Amino acid sequence: MNNKSKSYIRKIIYIILIIIAVLSIIYIIKYFYDFYISKKQTNLLNEVTISEQTNFAIENNLQEPINQSTKPERILKLEELKKQNSEIIGWVEIENTDINYPVLQAKDNDFYMNHNYKGEYSSAGAIFLDKDYNWDIPSSNLLIYGHNMKNSTMFQNLLKYNSIDFYKEHPIIRFTTLQEDADYEIVGAFYSKVYFKTDKNVFKYYQFVNAQNEEEYNSFIQNVKNSSLYDTGIDAKYGDQLITLSTCSYHTADGRFVVVGRKK
User: Fold this and answer.
1) What is the CATH code for 86-263?
2) Fewest Cβ atoms closer than 10 Å to its Cβ: which of 120, 141, 158, 223?
3) pLDDT of res. 36
4) In 3D, which of 60, 65, 34 has the Cα closest to residue 50?
């Protein structure tokens, strides 16, 4: 190989290394930007304080500020947040984890994939309830989605439920609406995926929002228990309100990790 060829190859390698370095820098910047945005979103939620509720009451000439003793603090926070976005319908929390977010519901399941709870663009998106949940019934299953973010925000902590020890330390999902502050006992946690429409005899958990009858409800619960990585000892009977938290998992193509709970 002559010197001219060697020089050409070195030049190509140099260019490739520069491209790799630039892409690495872009990735690192994006990672920390997403982390900053997610943390900023969490901090903004925690800034909804009782003093802000008092100021709101004074500014609107109310006789007295909202009485904290008559409602749980979480419901008061939710009322304040709902003034910023009417599509905020609840708040989900798993104690001592990073899961502590408002839950939104839109007319489709796409918008909050890349918009935060204020409706602003965000690659982290927001935690959102399936569009088909009907509050007038109400539906049988609160099917809630959230991204699996590498910086441990949104629903990334759900994947820790692959360990029974983690479950034992975090057996409760807390879900708050304007009407109630409720606890849900975990029935099961399992890996799944989004199947093709043509796939038969598979558990498409994401299609279950409202049970048409007792048989359909019981079938869903049985599939959850059969799919679960461990036995929690918690069962559910027809009529019990359910909650299902779903996030992406990379164990397979279009993988998902799912945690299902029953209202206490």
Assistant:
1) 2.40.260.10
2) 120
3) 58
4) 65
